[in-house]
Specification:
The complex is a heterodimer.
Chain A (H helix, E strand, L loop, with lengths): L1 H23 L27 H14 L1 H6 L21 H21 L10 E2 L2 E2 H4 L19 H8 L23 H47 L5 H8 L5 H11 L12 H23 L4 H9 L24 E2 L2 E2 L16 H21 L4 H29 L4 H6 L1 H26 L5 H29 L9 H8 L4 H14 L8 H21 L5 H17 L1 H26 L7 H13 L10 H14 L5 H18 L7 H14 L42 E2 L14 H21 L6 H15 L7 H20 L36 H74 L1
Antiparallel strand pairs in A: 1-2, 3-4
Helix pairs in contact in A: 10-15, 12-13, 13-16, 13-18, 15-16, 18-20, 19-20, 19-21, 19-22, 20-21, 21-23, 22-24, 23-24, 24-25, 24-26, 25-26, 25-27, 26-28, 27-28
Chain B lengths: L7 H17 L6 H8 L5 H20 L18 H25 L4 H20 L14 H11 L7 H7 L6 H21 L6 H13 L28 H16 L5 H15 L10 H10 L1 H17 L7 H8 L10 H11 L7 H14 L5 H17 L38 H6 L5 H9 L12 H4 L3 H10 L26 E2 L3 H9 L1
Classes of the chains: A mainly alpha, B mainly alpha.
Function (chain A): Involved in nucleolar processing of pre-18S ribosomal RNA. Has a role in the nuclear export of 40S pre-ribosomal subunit to the cytoplasm.
Family (chain A): Belongs to the NOP14 family.
Subcellular location (chain A): Nucleus, Nucleolus
Chain lengths: 918, 524
C-alpha cells in the first residue's frame, strides 16, 4: 500500500518536472505570436499561437532518444541492458538504490531459503496486536457504525469518555458487584463490543422479518392482481374481492376499480358490405400481383432496384415528383363532410388483430365460393355441397368467437355452468343476428336477380345447421376438456379414438381455437406442433386402404389454416417430411438404379403442398424440392403394374396442377406420357415398334403390353369413368388388370397429353417436344377399338399438333435486346439556400466516409513529413559524424606534421650543432 | 498311419519334430516320405504344417546342395555311390514335394492353404535361385524360370477364383525379376491356354489373368531396377530384369495376348475403364492396342463409350489417325446416354474431344444441336450440365453462335436440322437454332431455367467449369433447394375446400369425391 502510494506520487512529480523541463528547455526557442487585439469569440488560427521552436527541439530530442539510438546500434548484434535496480531512475538517490537492492537481495534469499521451511508461521500484527486475535471479531471498527449517524451512543460516551467518575456504575453493575472489583479497561471494552454486537444482531433480525413480510405481501398482491385483472370486467368479481379484504375502505376500492378498469377503445365504424367486398378484392388483387412477381422470380429487392433504375427523362426535375401517384387527395368538403374517393378511409383500420384474419378468411371463402358459382354451370349437387361447406366454415368462425369468450372467463366455467342456459340463449340470439349479417354480406356479391331467393334459402339452412351445431357443441362440452394440446400423434389418436370424422374435425377445431396465439404465450409453438402432428395424421389417413377423403379434406383445411398462422415453421415441417420420404426413395434409387412408386401418403402430400404453398413461384423452398422429387419418380420408377400406371398418372396430374399457372416446362411428364402410350401400343410379333421411349420405359420387356387391350372387340362401348384414388394404394380393392382400367388409363393419359399440349403451345420447341407422341399416335396407336371419347382425345391431340405445325414459324433465335443505356442528362442542380459555411449535405454514411478520408489524408501527410524529417535528421547526423571524423583526421595530421616538423627541426638543429662542433 | 485318427494338432507337432530330425541328420531322411504323405491330408492344420515343413526341409537341403536336380534317367552306374543315390532319392522327393505344393496352390478350398503353398513355392524359388544348377541359368540371372512358370500356370487356374492368392502375390511385385518373369510366364501361359481352349477360355481364367495384370505396379521412367528376388551371380552384370525396355515389352506382350481373348462384358468394361490410365502409358508401343480399341468402339453402347477414352489417348498422344472419329462420336449421342452409368465420364470425354478450337464450325454446330435435341428427354440433373456444355462449345466456336443469335433471317417452316442424318456435315445444324434451349427457359427448375436464360444473352467470354456440373445428381439438387431458404415463405392465398378443389385439374381424370358421401347418397 505504502509503496503504491509513493510510486504514484513519484509519477506525478516526474510528470510535472518533465512539463517544466519541456517548456524551459530554451527560452530563445519560444516564439509567441502576439495578438494586437483580442477579439471575443474569434477562433485562433493554427499559426497564430504556439511555439514552433519548442516543438522542433522536442522533436529533435525525441529523435535523439529513439532514431539516433537505433542508428548508433545499427550494426551491433548485442546490446547492453542495465538491469540494476533503479539505475535508470534519475530521481533515486544512491541511498535509495542501495536500500532497494538490499531488500531485493533479502527477498530472493528468503524465497530460496523459505522454500523448504516448515511450521514457521510468522505472526502478523496490527498496531502491536496479533491479527489472528483481531480477526475473531467480525468487524473491529463496528462501534463506529453503531448508528446510522455514525455517532457513539450516549451511554457509551457517558461510560467510557467520562469514566463514570463519582457515579461509578452504582446501579448498573449490581449483579457483578459480588466480585467487588472494578473492571479493567480491557473488560469494559469487550463488554461494550459485545453489547453493540447484540444490538446489531437484533437489528438484522428485525430487518429480515420485515423483508419476509413484505415478500409475502407482494406475493399475495400478485396473486390477487391476477384475479383482479381477469375479473374486473365481470361485475361478479367485486363481492369476492371484498370478502378477501374486508377492511379495505371505499376509497381504495374506488381507486383500484378506476385503475384496473378496461377502458373502452375507440373503434372504427363498421364497414359496409361494399367496402368489405372491395377491400377483399383489393387484397386478392395484391396477392395475385405478388404471386405474378414471384413467378417471374423477382424479389422485393429487384423490384426496388427496378424502380430506382427507371428512366430519367431530361425534363425530370429530380424532385421526386411522380405523375403516377393517385394517393394524393384533394381535400374537399361537401355538406360539412370530408369527401373521400371510393375505397378510401380516413384512417387505416386498427381493429384488433385477432378478429381480422378470421373475418378475412371467412370472407375470402365467400368470395371464392361465389366465383366458383359464377363460373360453374348450374351443377346442383356441387352447388349445395359448397353451400354446406361454406356454412360449416361460417359456423367454425362463429364458434371461434364463442370460444374466445369462453376462454376469457375460463376459470369461471363452474360459475357459468349454473346460469348457462340463459346466457347461451342470449348468445345464440346474438349469433343469429351475426350470422344473418354475414350471410347478407355474402349474398351482396352475387348477382342481383336471385338475391332474394337465395337469402331465404340461406336463412333456412342457417337455422338447420344451428340445431346440429348446438347438439354437437353440447356433446363436446360435456365430454371433453380440450384445453390441452396433443404432444404427439399418439396423444391425438387417443383423443380421437372412436370418434366419427365430423367429431374429429370438431375436436381439432376446438384444440386450435383454445390455443389461439393471442390467448397465451407459447400457444404458437403448440400450434406449430399441432401442424406437424396433423401432417403425420394426414399421412396415416392417406395410407388407409379406402382413402378417407372426407376426413382428409377436413384435415387439409386445418393444415392450410395452421400454415397461414405460422408460415415459416410449417414450411420447415413439410420440408422435413418431404426430406425423409425423399431420402428413403433416393437411397433405393442409388442402390438399384430404380425404385418403386412411393405410397399414397407421399402422393397426396404432393397435392397437399400445392394446396398450402403457391406452386407458381420461381423458387420456393418447399415446392421446388417437391417437384424435383416428382420428376425423379417419373424418371426412375419402372412401370410394372396397373398401380404403377395409376401412380404415374397421378404424379403427372399433380405436375399439371403445379405448373398450370406458371406454364413451366416439365420434360419428364411428356416423356412419361409418351411411355404410357407406348405401353398401349400392340407390339406385334416381338418386333419393337420403331418409336423411341425414354427410361424408365423400355422398348421390350415383360410389361411392354401392360396397357394393350385384351379383348378389343367388346371394349368399344365401355363407358369411361374417372380413375378412383383407390388405384394408388398398394393393394387396391378394384382390380387393375381389366380392360376397363386400361381404357380409363389410356383415356386419362390422352387427356393429360392434351392439357399439357395446350399449355405448352407457346414453347418454341413445341413440335420437337410432342413429335414423339404424335408419331406414336398417328402411326402406331390408332385406337380403333376404343370408345369414342378416347378416339376423340387422340384426334384432338393430332389436330392440335398439325394446326400448330401449319402455323408454326421458326423464327431464328436472337439474343435478348438489351436496352441501350441512356445518358443521364440532368439539368444543372441549383441549391436555393446555398451556404458556403455549411458543410456539404449528405447522408450520415457519406459524411462519415468523408471524415475518414480526410483523416486518412492528414495522417498520411503527417507520416510522410515524419519520415522526411527522420531522413533529414539522419543525414544531418551522418554529416556531423563525417565532419567529426574529418576534423579528427585533420587534427591528427596536424599533430603528426607538427611532430614531424619539430623532429625535423631538431634534427636540423643537431646537424647544425654537429657542423658547429666539427 | 495310426496318426490319422489322432488329434490333428498332435500330428502337426509330430511333423514339426520330424522336420527338425530330418534337418539334424540324414538318419531320419525317411521322415520326408511321411511328411509327403501327411501333406495330402484333408485336415487344414496338418496340411499347413506339412507344407511349411516341406518348404523348410527343401530350402535347407537345397542350400546344402544335397538334392539332385538333373534329369532322373533311371538307374545308372552312379547308383553304386550311396551318396549319389541318396541325392537322387532326395531329388525325387523334391519333385514330389513340388507337385504337392503346386497341386495345393491350384486346387484347394481354403485360400490360406493356397497362400501358404504359394509362399512356400516362392521360398523354394529363392532357394533354387541361390544355388543354381549349372544348366538352369541361361542368362546371368539365376532365376528358376521353369519352376516359376509352373507356379504361374497353377495360379492362373481356369476353375477357381484366385484373387486372394494373387493379392498375396502382389507383395512380390516389388522385385523386378519376379515382375518380369511373371509377364513372361503369363504370356506363355496365355498362348498355351488359348490354344487349348480353341474358342474362348473360361471367364474365371480371364478374371484371374486380369486380376494379376492389374495388380502389377510397373516401374516409372528412370527408376532403379536392381531390386531382385533372386540375386544373380554377378550383381553388377546387366540382366533382363534390370532393363526397363524388357519389362515393358513383357508387359505389352502379356496384355496383348490377354486382350486377344473375347472378354465377358463386365470384365470388358473394367478393362476399358482402366486401360487409359494404367496400361497405355506403360506399354512399349501403345499403337498395338489400336485393333482392340477400334473393335470395342464398333461394338456400340456403353462399351464404345468406354473405348473412346483409350482411343482418344492414342489419337492425342500417339498420333493415331482415325478418320471417322467425330462421326462415330456424333453417333454416340443418343437419348440413352443420359440414363446410363457412365454419363459423367462420357460428357467429360466429349468435352475433352471437343476442346480444340480447330474443329470445323459445322461439326461443333452439329454436336450442339444434337445435344440440345437430346436434352428434351434428359433428366433434370443432367440439364444444367448440358446447358453449360452447349454454352462452352458456343464460346469456343463463335461461328456457331448463329445457333442462338441470328441477326437477320425469317421464320422457317420447320426445323432444318435433320435428326436422322448420321453425318454431322449434312445434318444442316448450322441453319437451325436452339429452340429447345429456348424452351428450357421455361423449365420448372429455377437453376435450369436460369442456365437457359444465360444462353439467351450475349455470352460472357470465359468458359464455365463443366466438372462441377458433371456429377450433379438429383439428391444434391434436392438438398440445395431445401437449404436455400428465404426468410419468408410465401403461402397460397386461395382458401381450399378440401384436398381436391372442384376447379383443379384432377376434376376430370380422378374420382376425388369422398366415398362416404357417395354412400350417403346411395343410402338416402
Amino acid at each position: 500500500m505504502k509503496h503504491k502510494h509513493t510510486s504514484k506520487a513519484d509519477f506525478v512529480r516526474k510528470n510535472k518536472k518533465k512539463a517544466q523541463t519541456d517548456v524551459k528547455s530554451n527560452p530563445f526557442e519560444v516564439r509567441i505570436n502576439r495578438q494586437k487585439h483580442n477579439v471575443l469569440g474569434k477562433k485562433l488560427r493554427r499559426f497564430d499561437k504556439g511555439m514552433p521552436g519548442v516543438s522542433r527541439s522536442k522533436a529533435i530530442k525525441k529523435r535523439k532518444a529513439t532514431l539516433l539510438q537505433e542508428y548508433q546500434q545499427r550494426d551491433k548484434r548485442n546490446q547492453f541492458v542495465d538491469r540494476r535496480l533503479g539505475e535508470n531512475d534519475p530521481e533515486m538517490t544512491l541511498e535509495d538504490k542501495m536500500l532497494q537492492r538490499f531488500a531485493m537481495e533479502r527477498k530472493t534469499h528468503h524465497e530460496k531459503a523459505g522454500a523448504f521451511s516448515l511450521n514457521e508461521d510468522e505472526e502478523l500484527t496490527h498496531f502491536g496486536q496479533s491479527l489472528s486475535q483481531i480477526e475473531k471479531f467480525e468487524e473491529p471498527e463496528s462501534d463506529s457504525e453503531d448508528d446510522a449517524t455514525g455517532k457513539l451512543s450516549g451511554e457509551y460516551v457517558k461510560e467510557a469518555h467520562f469514566g463514570g467518575f463519582l457515579t461509578k456504575k452504582a446501579s448498573k453493575d449490581s449483579g457483578e458487584e459480588k466480585s467487588d472489583k472494578p473492571k479493567s479497561r480491557q473488560e469494559m471494552i469487550e463488554e461494550i463490543i459485545a453489547q453493540s454486537k447484540q444490538r446489531k444482531h437484533e437489528r438484522q433480525n428485525q430487518k429480515e422479518q420485515t423483508d419476509d413480510l413484505r415478500e409475502k405481501l407482494d406475493q399475495q398482491w400478485t396473486d390477487q392482481l391476477h384475479m383482479l385483472v381477469k375479473k374486473t370486467n365481470k361485475k361478479e368479481s367485486q363481492p369476492k374481492e371484498d370478502k378477501v379484504k374486508p377492511e379495505a375502505d371505499d376509497y381504495d376500492i374506488m381507486v383500484r376499480e378506476l385503475g384496473f378498469e378496461i377502458k373502452a377503445k375507440a373503434s372504427d365504424r363498421l364497414k359496409t358490405e361494399d367496402e368489405l367486398a372491395r377491400e377483399e378484392q383489393e387484397r386478392l388483387q395484391k396477392l395475385e400481383a405478388d404471386r405474378q412477381l414471384r413467378m417471374k422470380g423477382l424479389t422485393q429487392e429487384d423490384i426496388r432496384q427496378q424502380q430506382q433504375n427507371r428512366h430519367v427523362s431530361a425534363d425530370d426535375l429530380d424532385d421526386g415528383f411522380d405523375f403516377i401517384r393517385p394517393e394524393r387527395l384533394q381535400l374537399a368538403y361537401k355538406d360539412g363532410k370530408l369527401l373521400l374517393p371510393e375505397g378510401k378511409e380516413l384512417m387505416p383500420s386498427t381493429s384488433d388483430a385477432d378478429q381480422k384474419p378470421i373475418r378475412r378468411k371467412h370472407h375470402s371463402e365467400a368470395a371464392s365460393g361465389s366465383e366458383a358459382d359464377q363460373s360453374e354451370d348450374e351443377d346442383k349437387e356441387g352447388h349445395s355441397d359448397e353451400e354446406n361447406s361454406d356454412q360449416s366454415e361460417g359456423e367454425g368462425s362463429d364458434q371461434s368467437e364463442e370460444e374466445e369468450k369462453d376462454d376469457d372467463g375460463s376459470d369461471l366455467e363452474s360459475e357459468r355452468s349454473s346460469d348457462n342456459d340463459s346466457e347461451e340463449e342470449q348468445e345464440e340470439e346474438e349469433e343469429d343476428i351475426d350470422n344473418e349479417g354475414s350471410e347478407e354480406e355474402v349474398e351482396e356479391d352475387r348477382e342481383e336477380k336471385d338475391k332474394r331467393e337465395q337469402k331465404t334459402q340461406a336463412m333456412e339452412k342457417t337455422s338447420i345447421s344451428k340445431k346440429e351445431r348446438k347438439a354437437i357443441a353440447e356433446a363436446a362440452k360435456t365430454e371433453l376438456s380440450l384445453y390441452f394440446s396433443p404432444e404427439s400423434l399418439k396423444d391425438l389418436m387417443e383423443l380421437l379414438e372412436g370418434q366419427s370424422y365430423d367429431r374429429q374435425l370438431l375436436i381439432m377445431n376446438r384444440i386450435r381455437k383454445c390455443h389461439h396465439p393471442s390467448l397465451a404465450e407459447g400457444n404458437r409453438k403448440k400450434l406449430q406442433n399441432l401442424f406437424s402432428i396433423l401432417l403425420e395424421y394426414f399421412g396415416k389417413l392417406a395410407n388407409q386402404s379406402p382413402v378417407a377423403m372426407e376426413m382428409i379434406d377436413g384435415l387439409t383445411i386445418h393444415l392450410y389454416e395452421l400454415a397461414q398462422q405460422s408460415p415459416g415453421p410449417s414450411a420447415d415441417t413439410v420440408q422435413t417430411v418431404l426430406k425423409n420420404k425423399y431420402h428413403k426413395f433416393d437411397s433405393v434409387c442409388q442402390r438399384k438404379g430404380r425404385a418403386v412408386y412411393p405410397a399414397v401418403d407421399t402422393l397426396l402430400l404432393f397435392k397437399l403442398v400445392s394446396v398450402i404453398f403457391p406452386t407458381s413461384d420461381f423458387r420456393h423452398s418447399v415446392v421446388t424440392p417437391a417437384m424435383l422429387f416428382m420428376a425423379q419418380i417419373l424418371t426412375k420408377c419402372p412401370v410394372t403394374s396397373g398401380r404403377d400406371v395409376a401412380c404415374g398418372l397421378f404424379v403427372c396430374t399433380v405436375f399439371l396442377q403445379y405448373v398450370s399457372l406458371s406454364k413451366r416446362f416439365v420434360p419428364e411428364v411428356i416423356n412419361y406420357l409418351q411411355g404410357l402410350l407406348y405401353l398401349a401400343v400392340k407390339k406385334e410379333s416381338r418386333k419393337a415398334v420403331a418409336a423411341e421411349v425414354v427410361p424408365p420405359f423400355k422398348h421390350t420387356g415383360a410389361q411392354g403390353n401392360l396397357l394393350v387391350l385384351q379383348e378389343p372387340d367388346d371394349s368399344g362401348s365401355m363407358s369411361i369413368e374417372p380413375l378412383p384414388l383407390d388405384y394408388l394404394s398398394k393393394n387396391p380393392v378394384q382390380d387393375t388388370d381389366t380392360d376397363d382400367f386400361r381404357i380409363s388409363a389410356t383415356h386419362a393419359t390422352l387427356q393429360l397429353t392434351n392439357m399439357f399440349a395446350n399449355m405448352y403451345k407457346n414453347l418454341p420447341a413445341f413440335h420437337e417436344i410432342f413429335s414423339p407422341i404424335s408419331d406414336l399416335l398417328s402411326k402406331h396407336l390408332l385406337l380403333a377399338a376404343y370408345p369414342q371419347e378416347v378416339q376423340d382425345g387422340r384426334s384432338q391431340f393430332l389436330q392440335l399438333v398439325t394446326d400448330h405445325h401449319s402455323q408454326a414459324t421458326y423464327p431464328p433465335l436472337q439474343y435478348e435486346k438489351l436496352k441501350p443505356k441512356p445518358l443521364k442528362l440532368y439539368e444543372p442542380k441549383f441549391d436555393e439556400d446555398y451556404n458556403p459555411e455549411r458543410k456539404m449535405k449528405g447522408s450520415r454514411k457519406q459524411k462519415e466516409k468523408e471524415r475518414l478520408l480526410k483523416m486518412h489524408k492528414r495522417e498520411m501527410k503527417g507520416a510522410v513529413r515524419e519520415i522526411r524529417k527522420d531522413a533529414q535528421f539522419l543525414a544531418r547526423q551522418q554529416l556531423q559524424e563525417q565532419m567529426d571524423k574529418d576534423a579528427e583526421r585533420k587534427r591528427k595530421v596536424k599533430e603528426i606534421m607538427h611532430h614531424l616538423s619539430s623532429q625535423e627541426g631538431e634534427c636540423k638543429q643537431i646537424a647544425k650543432k654537429k657542423i658547429k662542433i666539427m | 498311419m495310426s496318426a490319422d485318427d489322432a488329434n490333428p494338432r498332435a500330428i502337426a507337432e509330430d511333423i514339426k519334430r520330424k522336420t527338425k530330425e530330418v534337418l539334424q541328420s540324414r538318419e531320419h531322411a525317411n521322415n520326408i516320405t511321411d511328411i509327403l504323405e501327411t501333406a495330402q491330408s484333408d485336415e487344414d492344420v496338418v496340411t499347413a504344417a506339412s507344407l511349411s515343413a516341406l518348404q523348410k526341409i527343401f530350402s535347407t537341403l537345397l542350400g546344402r546342395k544335397e538334392v539332385y536336380r538333373g534329369k532322373l534317367k533311371g538307374s545308372d552306374e552312379e547308383l553304386a555311390d550311396p551318396k549319389k543315390q541318396y541325392s537322387r532319392w532326395l531329388g525325387q522327393c523334391y519333385i514330389d514335394a513340388l507337385e504337392i505344393l503346386l497341386h495345393r496352390l491350384a486346387h484347394h478350398d481354403n485360400s490360406d492353404i493356397k497362400e501358404l503353398a504359394l509362399l512356400a513355392l516362392l521360398k523354394l524359388v529363392s532357394a533354387e535361385g541361390k544355388h543354381p544348377t549349372s544348366k538352369s541359368g541361361g542368362d546371368q540371372s539365376n532365376f528358376p524360370l521353369r519352376l516359376f512358370q509352373l507356379i504361374i500356370d497353377k495360379l492362373m487356374s481356369s476353375e477357381a477364383d484366385q484373387s486372394t492368392v494373387i493379392g498375396r502375390f502382389q507383395d512380390y511385385f516389388q522385385y523386378d525379376d519376379i515382375r518380369l518373369f511373371t509377364f513372361v510366364s503369363l504370356h506363355k501361359n496365355l498362348r498355351t491356354v488359348t490354344k487349348e481352349f480353341t474358342r474362348q477360355p473360361p471367364d474365371t481364367y480371364l478374371h484371374n489373368v486380369h486380376t494379376l495384370l492389374t495388380q502389377v505396379q510397373m516401374p516409372g521412367e528412370g527408376g532403379d531396377l536392381s531390386n531382385l528376388y533372386v540375386s544373380p551371380t554377378d550383381p553388377e552384370a546387366e540382366c533382363r530384369p534390370k532393363q526397363l525396355k524388357e519389362q515393358r515389352r513383357a508387359f505389352t506382350n502379356a496384355w496383348l495376348s490377354f486382350l486377344k481373348n473375347k472378354l465377358p462384358s463386365s470384365l470388358y468394361r473394367q478393362v476399358l475403364l482402366t486401360l487409359d490410365q494404367a496400361v497405355i502409358p506403360l506399354m512399349s508401343s501403345p499403337k498395338l492396342l489400336i485393333d482392340f480399341l477400334t473393335q470395342s468402339y464398333n461394338v456400340g453402347g456403353a462399351i464404345s463409350l468406354l473405348a473412346l477414352n483409350g482411343l482418344f489417348t492414342l489419337i492425342y498422344k500417339h498420333n493415331l489417325d482415325y478418320p471417322d472419329f467425330f462421326r462415330k462420336l456424333y453417333a454416340l449421342f443418343e437419348p440413352s446416354v443420359f440414363h446410363v452409368k457412365y454419363t459423367a465420364r462420357f460428357f467429360h470425354l466429349a468435352d475433352v474431344f471437343l476442346t480444340s478450337t480447330h474443329i470445323p464450325a459445322y461439326l461443333a454446330a452439329a454436336f450442339i444441336k444434337r445435344l440440345s435435341r437430346l436434352s428434351l428427354s434428359a433428366p433434370v440433373s443432367s440439364l444444367q450440365m448440358v446447358l453449360v456444355f452447349i454454352s462452352n462449345l458456343l464460346r469456343r466456336h463463335p461461328n456457331c453462335q448463329v445457333l442462338v443469335h441470328r441477326s437477320s433471317g425469317e421464320g422457317l417452316g420447320s426445323d432444318p436440322y435433320d435428326e436422322s442424318e448420321p453425318d454431322p456435315a449434312k445434318c444442316k445444324a448450322m441453319d437451325s437454332s436452339l429452340w429447345e434451349v429456348k424452351s428450357f427457359q421455361h423449365h420448372f427448375h429455377p437453376d435450369v431455367s436460369q442456365a437457359a436464360l444465360l444462353l439467351g444473352k450475349p455470352l460472357a467470354p470465359l468458359e464455365e467449369d463443366l466438372s462441377q456440373h458433371l456429377e450433379l445428381c438429383t439428391s444434391e439438387m434436392f438438398e440445395k433447394d431445401l437449404t436455400t431458404k428465404s426468410d419468408q415463405v410465401p403461402l397460397e392465398f386461395h382458401v381450399p375446400k378440401g384436398l381436391f378443389g372442384p376447379k383443379d385439374q384432377f376434376h376430370n381424370i380422378w374420382d376425388t369425391e369422398p366415398p362416404t358421401k357417395k354412400h350417403k347418397t346411395v343410402t338416402s
